[in-house]
Write a structure and sequence with these properties.
two-stranded antiparallel ribbon, mainly beta, single chain, 6 strands
Length: about 100
Amino acid sequence: MIQYRNWRNFLCRLSNPTNATLGAITTAQVTITDDESDPTITIVDNSTAEATTTANMVLQLSNPSAKTITLEYTVTDATATGGADYTAITGVQTLNIAP
């Protein structure tokens, strides 16, 4: 899951006209929509020696982002067995990546 959208709003208010009067609507909310494409996160394949106690996964982001990305992860069995070959974990990681 990537939580990425970050739309922002501001208000524009009209006041104190000269040689005119204000109409019924004097305030407008403007939304700045984020038109950047969402980045893609990819795991770069890694291997870990059997005697190693930790495995580090390298993630690659497809394009820079000034936004905070939150990523959920789960470790599950393939040919290795959780509890015997590794410790199965799940979690949420917040990534702060400088553009």
